[in-house]
Amino acid sequence: MIYLDNAATTFPKPPAVLRAITDCMRYDCGNPGRGSHALALRAAEHIYICREELATLFGSAHPERVSFTANATTALNTVIKGLLREGDHVLISDMEHNAVLRPVFKLAETGRITYNVFPTHPSDPACTPKTVCAEILEHIRPNTRMLICAHASNICSAVLPLEEIGALCRRKGILFVVDAAQSAGHLAINMERMHIDALCAPGHKGLMGPQGTGFFLLGDGITADTLTEGGSGFNSLDPHMPDEPPERYEAGTLPTPAIAGLTAGIHEIQKRGLESIRAHLTACNRHLSERLLDLRGVTVYAPHHVGSVLLFNVDGVSSDALATELDRRGFCVRAGYHCAPLAHTTLQTPSGGAVRVSPSIDTTEKQIDAFADTLKGILQ
Amino acid sequence: MHDYQSGCYCVMGSMTQAMRAQRVLADAAIRADIVKSDSGESRRGCAYALSYSCAQAVNVRTVLSRAGIRPREFYGGAHA
Q1: Is A166 left (phi over 0), alpha (psi -120 to 50) or beta?
Q2: Could you report the per-residue pLDDT of A360-377, keeping only the tens digit for each?
Q3: What residue in A sits closest to B48 (Cα-Cα)?
Q4: Are A246 and B16 in contact (CB < 8 Å)?
């Protein structure tokens, strides 16, 4: 089996991640932040180390501003619903995943906020950061309070210029929220330099951690309302959630073994280096793109963006049928809309979506060739 | 329960705040252990505290203050 669905979740995980999870479960799995006996402290140490690693990775000096969630979607929901107020206007890009669109849509549908979608022109090779910022400027209203965008698309390799967008948001006094689901572990992100007020990401994709891990980092001075309330391990007599992050946003017991695994995943990323990871994924998809464009009837979407994800279709074949046939022949790829109908509309994929291929840091050129040869065989 | 008369303590609040303060002190070569403060001593309930040698009491205040860390309370030794 050749797994090419790493944009959904990375597989397989590095052996060090599996070891960290089982070692934690075997030796250190008290309840972190609940009590001060030896096992509770060992578990809390795992959690704090991961906060430190994430803060360092994303250019924050404040590990206590890293809050863990079950996934990026919960992180985004917490940040979006916790920071927006009645009457606010929100801008989202035209490449957003449903993890952004749906919470924003729900708030708008219930009359609490209004929102607009700004175009990012992923299909236009001539589009520059200046073009994107000009589009944003056109959509800003006096009550625009937040801009949310995906750093990297989950259906093609388009990347938004965070530094320029962040600077614009800071100038205009707009909260800048970034969905780093596809870029964390692949691209450099510095919250301070990019003026990011809230960064949301999963642990189980580019960061190589297990499923069940996600997090958000808040910038200095940013406090959100809580999405869930419950035990925080301290101030137990107070019926309110604590004011201080991260416990304010972490009601209930954290998944210590999974978070220990995430730390090991981050170490793996650091060992390989972001630039080397990016270069490898780009080389894989450049090669695949060249092979696919040689085949008659194949459309590759936004082919000038080469990175971790490649999206394609074959004339006259539904994406689901193609993915099913590829699965039968041993290739795991994902078809359909990838929970991103907005982005599919932007790229003008047909009804039924398209096929997404997302290699990993361990995918080889031989595997890419095997995929291209198999596809060629199916089309003949 | 900790005997605040026999050692020095600063009450931090959450485990995360206690760990952050513990690391800042460790960087300044000051050893501090995380302990749970007595739930009955605060109207808000339990909290985590750092326990350290009273000989370091002044240094602890200085180092934490420089790092922008404000403990809820100091107990014991010269703090008392």
Answers
A1: alpha
A2: 999 999 999 999 999 999
A3: A234
A4: yes
CATH number, span A273-379: 3.90.1150.10
Whole-model pTM: value is: 0.96
Across the beta sheet with B32-36, the strand order is B32-36, B48-52, B8-13, B73-75
Residue A49: other Cβ atoms inside 10 A? 16
Residues 6+ apart with CB under 8 A from B22: B32, B33, B34, B50
Q: How confident is the model at residue B39 (pLDDT cuts 50, 70, 90)?
A: low
The string of pLDDT tens digits covering residues A151-192 is 999 999 999 999 999 999 999 999 999 999 999 999 999 999
Interface contact B67, partner A, CB < 8 A: no
A14-41 pLDDT tens trace: 999 999 999 999 999 999 999 889 999 9
Contact A237 B44 (CB under 8 A): yes
Fold match between domain A15-271 and domain A273-379: no
Helix axes A38-57, A256-272, angle to 10 degrees: 40
Residue of B16, B35, B45 with shortest CB distance to A36 = B35
Structure tokens, A140: 């800003």
**Band (B80; pLDDT cuts 50, 70, 90):** very low
Residue boundaries of the structural domains of chain A: 15-271, 273-379
| CB-CB neighbors (< 8 A) of B67 in chain A | none
The amino acid that residue A33 corresponds to is G
CATH topology of domain A15-271: Aspartate Aminotransferase; domain 2 (3.40.640)
A218 CB within 8 Å of a chain B CB: no
